[in-house]
Design brief:
The protein has 236 residues and is α/β, with parallel strands linked by helices. It has a single domain (3-219), classed as Rossmann fold (3-Layer(aba) Sandwich), CATH 3.40.50. It is built from eight helices and seven strands, in the order αααββαββαβααββα. The protein has helices spanning 3-6, 21-37, 39-54, 88-99, 137-147, 165-182, 190-197, 226-231; strands at residues 60-64, 80-85, 104-109, 122-128, 148-159, 200-207, 212-218. β4, α5 and β5 form a beta-alpha-beta unit. The longest helix has 18 residues, at 165-182. The radius of gyration is 19 Å and the shape is globular. The chain starts with a helix and ends in a 5-residue tail after the last helix. It binds S-adenosylmethionine. S-adenosylmethionine is lined by residues 21, 24, 28, 65-67, 70, 85-87, 90, 111-113, 128-130, 133-134.
Length: 236
């Protein structure tokens, strides 16, 4: 990150009045038709990043905050997909997407911060442009880690504050109004959330002037079971 972009501590838009989960749901109810209409535009700009990242998914795959299903076409046809989102209106778009693809999939309305799945129940967990809207992004990332099996993949495409000073300043200027209209923290720092959640990052890179971050991670190593360790005889 350049000095110009990193030197100031600024609002990410949510500081003064963070939205509740219900308010975020209402915001996306209003925005769902807009997302469906401009799907093609999103794919034009982000498709080149989604494709290499999400084509690595395999096995049983969870797309957290799948929205209108923009990621689905980039997944291998062999995966067994579950898409979850808070917004029924966004999921209606995802359902249309799924119908047009050769993918086995199901969609469920669910809060990313409290996933209703067993521990270690997915081989790959993916999520895109989502941590910016979660009221508690670290809780959602910890849930992604919980449901991903040890050695599985957590693949994230996130956006945040640019590395380029002039762009970052423009984002700072827009942050409050953007959050009010979209429930999205334009200037978040995705890697800070990932670090706070304790994911084991295997690779991370930025693109588009540092606005996009592509993250390949896996669940952190299991905590050693202290009770077992205590029971073992000490080495002679
Ligand atoms: C900007 S859209 C991104 C959608 C899609 N992943 C994409 O890349 O286009 C953010 C999505 O996050 C969903 N969302 C926000 N908070 C959520 C939560 N707590 N649990 C599940 N989904 C949530 C919204 O409903 C919306 O569909």
């Amino acid at each position: 990150m350049t000095d110009a972009a990193s030197s100031e501590s600024t609002s990410d838009g949510a500081d003064s009045r963070p939205m509740s989960t219900d308010e975020i749901r209402d915001t996306y109810a209003d925005r769902a038709s807009w997302f469906a209409r401009f799907d093609w535009l999103d794919r034009l700009f982000t498709g080149r990043y989604r494709r290499p990242l999400f084509s690595q998914a395999s096995g049983r795959v969870l797309d957290v905050a799948c929205g209108t299903g923009v990621n689905f076409p980039y997944l291998p046809e062999s995966v067994d997909l579950v898409g979850v989102d808070l917004s029924p209106e966004m999921l209606a778009g995802a359902s249309q997407h799924l119908d047009g693809l050769e993918l086995d999939g199901e969609l469920r309305e669910m809060d990313a911060q409290e996933l209703a799945f067993e521990d270690d129940s997915f081989d790959t967990v993916i999520s895109s442009l989502s941590t910016c809207t979660f009221p508690d992004p670290v809780a959602a990332l910890r849930e992604m880690e919980r449901v991903c099996r040890p050695g599985g993949k957590i693949l994230l495409l996130e956006h945040g504050r640019s590395d380029v000073g002039a762009i970052a300043k423009l984002q700072d200027w827009r942050a409050d109004s953007h959050y009010e209209s979209m429930g999205c923290r334009l200037t978040q720092e995705p890697m800070e959330h990932v670090a706070a959640a304790g994911l084991n990052v295997r690779d991370a890179r930025t693109a588009v002037l540092g606005i996009l971050t592509l993250i390949e991670a896996e669940p952190a190593d299991e905590e050693p079971d202290l009770a077992d360790e205590a029971a073992e005889p000490a080495g002679e």
